[in-house]
Design a protein that fits this description.
Elements: H1 3-42, E1 47-48, E2 53-56, E3 61-63, E4 71-77, H2 84-99, E5 105-111, H3 119-128, E6 136-140, H4 143-153, E7 159-165, E8 168-174, E9 177-181, E10 186-192, H5 196-210
Parallel strand pairs: 4-5, 5-6
Antiparallel strand pairs: 1-10, 2-3, 2-6, 4-9, 7-8, 9-10
């Protein structure tokens, strides 16, 4: 075959392949956009998570704005809890295994029992529950500040749970609410942490937001 003709054929074939790839890319982009638009319509922003600073399980200050640009899930637990918290944390482990490799995804668990749940206690709890190292932040802080963050920041209602401590009963403000936050820091979903179906919905919503 004439070398010039062969070159023209190869060039034409390359153009066809590039065009086909572009079409597929556009279809995927449009599909992602449609999915994100559908999710945005079903779950409009509930409010912007305000700035806060708490203490991570490594003992260092943790600021909310360090999560900007990420899609993240927030739960509210305490390490002495023997009922809902182990269930919620095990579900969070599943979420991390599903999405933890994505560079724009993170998890946050805020202790509602910060006096007992020191950074060292939270770090041990994370290991014992199977939390994978990475972008899963276990947070503690001043008790009054923690309540403000949960109720005013995440718009979650915390109910007192009586716990025996040093021969007396103390009330721990607890909630099983789960929050999904988008890249801009807006809450985009409320989920019930003890309902299996809500974790399925959460998984779908995470995928939609990460595709945006």
């Amino acid at each position: 075959m004439n070398p010039a003709r062969l070159e023209r054929l190869l060039t034409a074939g390359l153009v066809v392949l590039l065009a086909a790839g572009a079409v597929v890319g556009v279809k995927v982009w449009l599909s992602d956009r449609a999915l994100s638009a559908k999710y945005a319509s079903a779950y409009p922003p509930l409010g912007l998570v305000p700035d806060f600073t708490l203490t991570g399980q490594d003992g260092r200050p943790f600021r909310e704005d360090s999560l900007k640009g990420k899609v993240w899930v927030a739960s509210f637990i305490y390490t002495r809890c023997a009922t809902s918290c182990p269930l919620i944390t095990s579900q969070m482990v599943r979420v991390q295994r599903r999405w933890g490799s994505h560079p724009d995804f993170a998890l946050v668990s805020i202790s509602v029992d910060p006096v007992h749940d020191t950074p060292a206690v939270l770090a041990a709890y994370a290991r014992s529950r199977g939390a994978l190292p990475g972008d899963w932040h276990f947070l503690t802080g001043d008790p009054a500040q923690v309540v403000r963050v949960i109720e005013r920041g995440f718009l979650a209602t915390a109910f007192p749970i009586p716990v025996r401590e040093s021969g007396r009963t103390v009330d721990i403000p607890h909630t099983t609410d789960i929050r999904l936050i988008d890249r801009q820091g807006y809450m985009r979903g409320r989920f019930e942490g003890v309902l299996e179906g809500d974790w399925t919905r959460l998984d779908q919503a995470i995928g939609a937001l990460l595709g945006s």
